[in-house]
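A reminder from the course coordinator: this example appears on the midterm review sheet, so study it carefully.

Given structure:
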């Protein structure tokens, strides 16, 4: 496993992380259990993964509790812990209370990366005031670094402009071979500004593993009705999975591992955080690290993804 630094002065993390939305309960399917998620954390740790992502919003805090249990097992020093604060808690007067709640559920004294889950479209709380409140938490030693999520360039510029002593170390965004609109602007901005990108849903919620088709679709709360799971889109994505398969065979890697490695080969610092509900998924995803697609293979996969005709209307 290789390790990379997030942002100018952020933490050093494994080049692939572990997403733990799955640990929020059964939103991701009846097969999700706390034990399965803990096994995923253990396996990821064994393979050198240090970055774990969760949020106060996942299962009303249950994911943070499970991650906290995992951290106690594998040791606090072995984890770079990223969690998120969501609107309406991003109102400046609620920020510290939300952070204290996460610290308690996680059972830690300090959060390594505290991220704004998404720009607040409802209350439209002042982002400037939120950033100042986060900076206060940083000064108080409750958080080590500030991150954001789902921020466009305009949001990043406003947020950074409000910070005096620290900078944003990473932006977590929806990016996968099947979801590439972020490449137009925000990915380029982050690469230029030295802000790391953490792609969420990097496997497009399991589709890039190649196991779903018209006759076999997930029906859980998170994915049922997803536009990406329309029959026509699954048929298109199967064409890409076939290419991932072929390229992966040369490296002894699975389509999921190739899809993750493709993200890791993009400009800037890119650290995917695939979600896992079991030790075997976490193990497979960790195997996306420690090797490299060649530039020609990256181009071939990019071309195959660009040629897809997805209808996400
Ligand atoms: N900031 C945000 O707004 C935001 C939004 C979404 C997610 N996230 C974060 O990003 C993480 C990852 O995103 P995600 O969980 O939405 O999507 P993902 O990583 O693309 O997909 C995860 C799902 O794919 C399947 N899977 C995982 N590894 C697999 C493998 N090796 N082989 C076959 N199937 C596999 C599993 O579901 P099945 O086995 O049931 O198919 C798993 O639940 C989350 O856990 C969360 O921490 C953040």
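Designed residues:
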């Amino acid at each position: 496993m290789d390790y990379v630094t997030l942002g100018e002065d952020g933490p050093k993390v494994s080049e692939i992380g572990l997403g733990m939305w799955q640990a929020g309960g059964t939103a991701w399917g009846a097969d999700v259990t706390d034990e399965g998620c803990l096994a995923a954390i253990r396996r990821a740790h064994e393979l050198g993964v240090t970055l774990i992502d969760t949020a106060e919003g996942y299962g009303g805090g249950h994911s943070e509790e499970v991650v906290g249990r995992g951290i106690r097992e594998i040791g606090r020093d072995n984890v770079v812990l990223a969690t998120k604060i969501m609107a309406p808690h991003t109102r400046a007067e609620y920020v510290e209370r939300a952070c204290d709640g996460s610290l308690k559920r996680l059972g830690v004294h300090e959060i390594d990366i505290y991220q704004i889950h998404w720009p607040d479209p409802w209350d439209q709380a002042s982002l400037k005031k939120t950033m100042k409140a986060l900076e206060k938490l940083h000064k108080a030693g409750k958080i080590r670094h500030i991150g954001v999520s789902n921020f466009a360039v305009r949001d990043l510029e406003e947020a950074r402009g409000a910070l005096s002593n620290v900078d944003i170390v990473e932006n977590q965004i929806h990016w996968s071979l099947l979801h590439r609109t972020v490449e137009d602007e925000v990915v380029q901005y982050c690469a230029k500004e030295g802000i790391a990108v953490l792609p969420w849903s990097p496997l497009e919620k399991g589709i890039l593993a190649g196991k779903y088709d018209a006759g076999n679709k997930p029906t859980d709360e998170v994915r049922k009705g997803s536009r990406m799971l329309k029959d026509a889109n699954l048929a298109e994505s199967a064409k890409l999975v076939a290419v991932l398969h072929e390229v992966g065979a040369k490296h002894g890697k699975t389509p999921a591992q190739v899809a993750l490695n493709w993200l890791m080969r993009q400009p800037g610092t890119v650290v995917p955080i695939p979600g896992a509900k079991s030790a075997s998924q976490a193990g497979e995803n960790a195997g996306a690290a420690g090797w490299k697609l060649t530039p020609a293979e990256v181009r071939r996969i990019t071309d195959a993804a660009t040629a897809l005709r997805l209808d996400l209307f």
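The beta strands are 3-5, 12-14, 18-19, 51-53, 80-85, 111-116, 143-149, 168-174, 196-200. The chain has a mean pLDDT of 98.
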